[in-house]
């Protein structure tokens, strides 16, 4: 009996007949059962006459399975697998907790610190390996990445693999997938999994010269079913339906709704689902959306979005640290760090990106490679502070001059003063409780205890410089 760790991947290959179009004409599914729990999964064709079923067991014990197919040789296949306890570092998939937060399925909190490498899996192997080496020494635990190749500034090269049979010159057969493309994608998602990084997969985007952004609705739905059947068993997958969806004018809003619902129905493990905007927000309040994925430079609105949508807010794009000519890609590191702190202490999660001019056009945001900026180490500093803090911090009020603060049960507060350079702040702390404080220099990455004990209405001395935070903990 094959053993698979909890939240690992059980794979069952089945030999079938390669007749007509196996991507379209063959249906394969299976029911997996453990005690009273039953999970239905869809299979897929992986080329060379091989069909596959994949399953992510989420209960320790012996599971049984039975396949169903319209092909005799694939129908009625039965067997068992033993799900053993998860190994160290495997916390399961990430889900939403208590409206505004995230948690791994084993109960470990997840605080997103993301970055963007749109087309890193469409580069030569050496560059992809360099990207993974960089990520291994970075603070990032979530990566935004495109499924399809991207055609845009600083990213003009041809991809190594194509998702459909055919060619750019002669046209694509959108009814036949190219398994090699998806195997490569799976390999890189597995690499991220080993690093503890969530793969935030962008399913569609407008930056295209291959025709993938203008496929028919029928083709899009077939593609979504195929990719869900292949990837839903990877515990570190998130579904991001589009990057800048509102630039894809050929898709009416009803199509996006339909794509959300399709994936929601097809995904047996209910991975996180969202969609990224350029200017026009999608209605994140809709039931099939699990969290907000927002592009905005105004981080002061995070608290407003939390209140409006009652879901976690991830600002995946707030402009990028870099020096290119585009306005969205030339902010200084201090501004990048400022924005991430500002959004964090308003209750959200803010993503990083980097766009420094390179003679070979290898920009992190596009192709990966190496990080050159000064913000990642300061993001790592913030991540350390957040991981030491109580879980599930939410926006709080601790004084009229402290507008950006999060806290927990009146025993912990984290405030941020951004570009102001006050020499003191007057605070309004809960009566009857005593607190100690630390002044945090978010740029120089220092933490300095403040002498004394504080309570009620009080005044705390600050260093009179920018980018200062204040940590307040109950004695």
Features:
globular, 31 strands, alpha/beta, single chain, 6-stranded antiparallel β-sheet, 5-stranded mixed β-sheet, 31% strand, 475 residues
Précis, in short:
With 475 residues, the protein is an alpha/beta fold.
Write the layout of secondary structure elements.
Layout: E1 2-5, E2 10-15, H1 22-25, E3 28-34, E4 37-42, E5 44-45, E6 50-55, E7 61-69, E8 78-84, E9 94-97, E10 101-104, E11 109-110, E12 114-116, H2 125-136, E13 142-146, E14 164-167, E15 171-177, H3 179-194, E16 198-202, H4 217-231, E17 237-240, H5 253-266, E18 273-274, E19 292-295, H6 302-309, E20 313-317, E21 321-322, H7 333-344, E22 349-350, E23 354-355, H8 364-367, H9 375-388, E24 394-395, E25 405-408, E26 412-416, E27 424-428, E28 435-441, E29 446-454, E30 457-461, E31 468-474
Parallel strand pairs: 1-8, 12-13, 13-16, 16-17, 17-18, 19-20, 20-22, 21-23
Antiparallel strand pairs: 2-6, 3-4, 3-7, 5-6, 7-8, 9-10, 10-11, 14-15, 24-25, 25-26, 26-31, 27-30, 28-29, 28-31
Helix pairs in contact: 4-5, 7-9
